[in-house]
Amino acid sequence: MKLNLLCVSVFVLCLVGCGTKNRVLQSAVVVKPVQILGARDTVVHEVKLTLDSPTLVIEPAVDISPIGQQFLERTLTPEEKVQEQKRMGIHKGADWASAIHYDLRKPNFVIIHHTSQNSTAQTIRTFQVEHSKVSSHYVIGRDGQLVQMLNDYERGWHAGRSKWGQITDMNSMSIGIELDNNGREPFPDLQINSLLNLLDTLKTKYTIPHTNFIGHADIAPNRKDDPNVFFPWKLLAERGFGVWYDESFLVQPPFNFNPIDALKIIGYDVSNEAAAIRAFKRKFIIKEVNGILTDYDKTVLYNVYKRYY
Ligand SMILES: [Zn+2]
């Protein structure tokens, strides 16, 4: 009796398994002979597959000469450039079987900047002129006005050449926020309150870890000094954005504490040690921003390191 039951179970399992396999085979249409060529090739095909009717549709091929290509590149709108980039993301040597479960990539970092300009309008103009090649997701004015310039899911051009931990393409991972500030002045409360509201929304919406709210100077210590020394990192950390040290628990680090290793573990690019130290001091020590760590600076660094990393 037990043996019979076992045989029936195996048979049913086999039927279910075979049925699943067939369904998978039906929906996974492998397209072999199709050329999917990138922007620099002479022929571009559009490939369309639908689940309901897994038939292959090839749109009429478009011939693009090198001169035509140059013209195309000059006249593409941002939306067309993104479409072109998506085509370039298809690997020519691979067969194509379209997956159906995906969405856009989410930001996991927030990078805070100051604009080094004199008004929100001036910053917006800078981000809209062809030759500047810079952009940011948000600009916040001195009066707290919040202007969005890119969808959160789009890749802004605000970080430039930068590194944090092992991440070398911060633009792909982050949202950029520019604070209207000439680089030498404090940030008004209205502006900071507007920033905190925005950070709250972004942190919740994209589940961004609190340690991943950092400044441009943190990720590009050789090149950048924004946001300037007046930026209230302590207040931000108290609200859950970024890190700060425990002022009531500063102790001398143990003799084997290596401050450069600690900076590296926190995320700083220490290929230029003095620059990394300057970035750390600009943020946490504020006075005497230079490339040398005093004993006091080391107690702060040790505290941050032990507290969060
Ligand atoms: Zn910046």
Describe this structure in words.
This protein has 309 residues and is α/β, with parallel strands linked by helices. It folds into three domains: 31-98, no CATH class; 109-238, Lysozyme-like, CATH 3.40.80; 259-308, no CATH class. The protein is 39% helix and 9% strand. It is built from eleven helices and nine strands. The protein has helices at residues 2-27, 66-75, 78-88, 120-128, 170-173, 189-206, 216-219, 233-238, 259-266, 273-284, 295-308, and strands at residues 43-44, 47-48, 57-58, 62-63, 109-114, 138-140, 146-148, 174-179, 213-215. It has a five-stranded mixed sheet with strand order 7-6-8-5-9, sandwiched between helices. A two-stranded antiparallel sheet has the order 1-4. A hairpin with a 5-residue loop joins strand 6 and strand 7. The longest helix is centred in the first third of the chain and has 26 residues, at 2-27. It is globular, with a radius of gyration of 26 Å. The site of zinc ion has 4 residues, from loops.
Q: How do you describe this structure in short?
A:
With 309 residues, the protein is an alpha/beta fold. It has eleven helices and nine strands.
Mean pLDDT: 84
The CATH topology of the largest domain is given as Lysozyme-like
Strand content: 5-15%
The gyration radius over C-alpha positions equals: 26 Å
Which secondary-structure class do the elements indicate?
A: alpha/beta
CATH class of the largest domain: Alpha Beta
Biggest sheet descriptor: 5 strands, mixed
**CATH architecture classification name of the largest domain:** 3-Layer(aba) Sandwich
Distance between the first and last residues' Cα: 61 Å
SS element count, helices: 11
The molecules bound to the chains, other than polymers, are: zinc ion
Major β-sheet strand ordering: 7-6-8-5-9
Strand/helix succession: HEEEEHHEHEEHEHEHHHHH
Could you estimate the helical fraction of the residues in percent?
A: 25-40%
Number of domains: 3
How many individual β-strands? Answer: 9
Shape: globular
Fourth-level CATH superfamily of the largest domain:
Peptidoglycan recognition protein-like
* Contiguous uncertain segments of 5+ residues: 1-63
Catalytic activity: Hydrolyzes the link between N-acetylmuramoyl residues and L-amino acid residues in certain cell-wall glycopeptides
Keywords: Cell wall biogenesis/degradation, Hydrolase
Organism: Sphingobacterium alkalisoli
Pfam family, one: Amidase_2
